[in-house]
């Protein structure tokens, strides 16, 4: 609902008598800037932890986060904000990547976004989980992945530290691919996925799950 025509009151629009005034109102609603979204998957964590607080990063996971932080810094970009999942492994990854954290959110927590097609035999969550997690992850997509506000004058660079399922679902939705195909994508720990959202709403995928900046012996996908 960010198309300029959708942002103008239809009743008022129909009452317009001058084309110039209508064009001016449309131009006022148009986005001018590009948003660069960097979706970072958390680093390797302790799979034996029973509760979320116990699923902390492993020593290798902390190394991966350091490498990801160095990679992001090497891009020479001025990042506008870092938003991260409230789960322990994402929080710890973010703490290593940056010491200045503006915000965090429950919307980006890991979950089961939508039943995958084709299905897989090794991962079958209860059906109710798709309804609970799916609505939340879809809300995250709608809340965070959109064209820039019309008031935004300059391009922005934003980091989101979250989880593989969330990133894969967001990529499918953003590119208008069937979202049921999210499980066909694979993401390494600490990987960088770069989405670009143009002022006209078109989305481009610059990188998907990039870990080329890590030595081969540091790459994992747990």
Automatic annotation (TrEMBL):
* Top-level taxon: Eukaryota
Q: Which GO terms describe its cellular component?
A: mitochondrial outer membrane
**Where located?**
Mitochondrion outer membrane
Disulfide bond: is it a keyword of this entry?
A: no
What EC identifiers does the entry list? 3.1.3.16
Which InterPro entries did the record assign? His_Pase_superF_clade-1, His_PPase_superfam, Mito_Ser/Thr_phosphatase
Q: Which GO terms describe its molecular function?
A: protein serine/threonine phosphatase activity
Q: Which UniProt keywords apply?
A: Hydrolase, Membrane, Mitochondrion, Mitochondrion outer membrane, Necrosis
Task: Give me the reactions it catalyses.
Answer: O-phospho-L-seryl-[protein] + H2O = L-seryl-[protein] + phosphate; O-phospho-L-threonyl-[protein] + H2O = L-threonyl-[protein] + phosphate
Looking up SMART domains in the UniProt record yields: PGAM
Concerning its family, UniProt says: Belongs to the phosphoglycerate mutase family. BPG-dependent PGAM subfamily.
Q: What is this protein called?
A: Serine/threonine-protein phosphatase PGAM5, mitochondrial
Q: Which species does the entry assign this protein to?
A: Hemiprocne comata
